[in-house]
Amino acid sequence: MCGIVGYIGRQDAAPILMEGLRRLEYRGYDSAGVAAVRGGALRIYKSKGNVRDLERLVPPGLKGTPGIAHTRWATHGEPNDRNAHPHADAANRYAVVHNGIIENAQALRAQLLAQGVQFRSDTDSEVLAHLIAAMPGETLEQTVRAALQMITGAYGIAVLDAERPDALLVARQGSPVILGIGEREMFIASDAAALVRHTPRIVHLDDGEIAVVRADRYETSTLEGGPTVKVPLVLDWQSEALSKGTFAHYMHKEILEQPDAIRRTLSGRLDKRFHTAHLGGIEMAARELLAVRRVKILGCGSAYIAGCVGAQLIEQIARIPAHAEPASEFRYRNPVIEPDTLYLAVSQSGETFDTLAAVQEVTRKGGHALGIVNAVGSTIVRACGRGIYLHAGPEIAVVSTKTFTCTAVAFARLALHLGRLRDLSAARGERLLSALERHCRGRLLRLWPTRGPSTRSPGRSPATATCISSVGPPGTRSPWRAR
Questions:
Q1: Is residue 245 part of a domain?
Q2: 467 and 429 in a common domain
Q3: What end-to-end distance do the CA atoms of the chain give, in Å?
Q4: Contact residues for 191 (Cβ-Cβ < 8 A; gap 6+)
């Protein structure tokens, strides 16, 4: 599973799809492919390797719309051309791209083989294309809905019908799907990074939802057929924020973006009058927060590590017992959910599956969960209903830099707010507030870059000159150059 891109509208789909795939390369993948409709015929190009390999395969000026595309990270079948997405049915009418895992794929494959279906790949995803082709229905929605009711597992899919090219169909169960709303054109992606160049208006599908997407509108419903209502969100990301610019690597760029990211995290959220921090997104009255007797922080990877930092801050500043736990382990131990415990779900993307599952476990048992999330409108945000946005901006590098820093700063804000409601004195609150403001005005200190003779640190070889970041107040001394 990896990246999905789709387009329907007045333009040829191929250039938009290829550009979207390039923006999703940071997620990692082993093959890529694209499908478009022209003259009622489905044209599919796919290959092992990277998007540049696919570009050499796709004919220049490929015409046709709508279209779908995919970057794959192998889960079923080795990385090769035939296992790459999109997958089509035997008649080459339906094309499917799929993120996720179909748990009952082996049983479904056996049923289809018994009916004479010949498979061209080793993937679980190809099962979907043949199931859709085998289902009765007058519309693409009816056909796909019937096929999905036979599926067990997780999926984010986009489906294209060459004989009915007026619509694309997308569905979600456990894997993100986002719609981008343009002017008489619509975009589909698994990640907002693929959409932001074309439109800031997006819609997140929820689990168990289907969307029929046409050039001028979209309709959403549940898998069972009940209509749903979606309110579009407006992203505040700029297209330039998703490019490397003059930097060789996204990680280097994002290290240097940390001071600005911290300023956004703190901007307008420090209260000098009462020496505290504003937490408007939490929407909990002071008496509710005073009733909290314990804080449990849930996250995966760097979000969990940031949670460990946050637990220490909350205990030291607010004097509330706090503990961070890997979200991937939380639900499997059948946790006791206490009514006076505040649960905090931490995620950069807001789509981390294990963290979302932990939130669902908390709420199912009557607990209260708040989100600390970077991605506006993401699934964890909607599941929690309230929390803290980081405003760190898009983070493309796999290694967390500015999001980790901003999460630690957000925990400092939370600890200060909780502390001032309790026993933290105004004098100490003022000192903490001043420290946060100094960081807000701080400069980024970094080691000399790995390349460039004019910027190499004296006495250090290029092999050992590694980028590190630190945010500190003006005048902070460092053995390395301040930039």
A1: no
A2: no
A3: 39
A4: 3, 23, 24, 27, 176, 178
Q: For 56-92, what is each residue's pLDDT tens digit?
A: 999 988 899 999 999 998 888 888 999 999 999 999 9
Question: Do residues 13 and 36 lie in contact, with contact meaning Cβ atoms separated by under 8 Å?
Answer: yes
171-225, pLDDT tens digit by residue? 999 899 999 999 999 999 998 888 888 998 999 999 999 999 999 999 999 999 8
pTM metric for this prediction:
0.80
d(C-alpha 143, C-alpha 131), whole Å: 9
Q: Please, where are the H alpha helices in 138-280?
A: 140-148, 250-256, 258-266
Low-confidence ranges of the chain (pLDDT < 70): 1, 237-241, 439-483
Compute the distance between CA of residue 118 and CA of residue 262 in angstroms, rounded to an integer: 55
Whole-number Å distance between alpha carbons of 412 and 281 = 15
Helices (H), ranges, 422-452: 426-440
Any domain includes 334:
yes
For residues 370 and 283, the answer to whether their CB atoms sit within 8 Å is no
What are the residues facing 38 on neighbouring strands? 41
Structure-block tokens of residue 375: 């991605």
Rounded CA-CA distance 394/382 in Å is: 19
Beta-sheet pairing, 87-88 with 94-102: antiparallel
* Amino acid symbol at 306: A
* Domain containing residue 449: 444-483
Give the chain's largest Cα–Cα span.
78
256 plus 396 within the same structural domain: yes
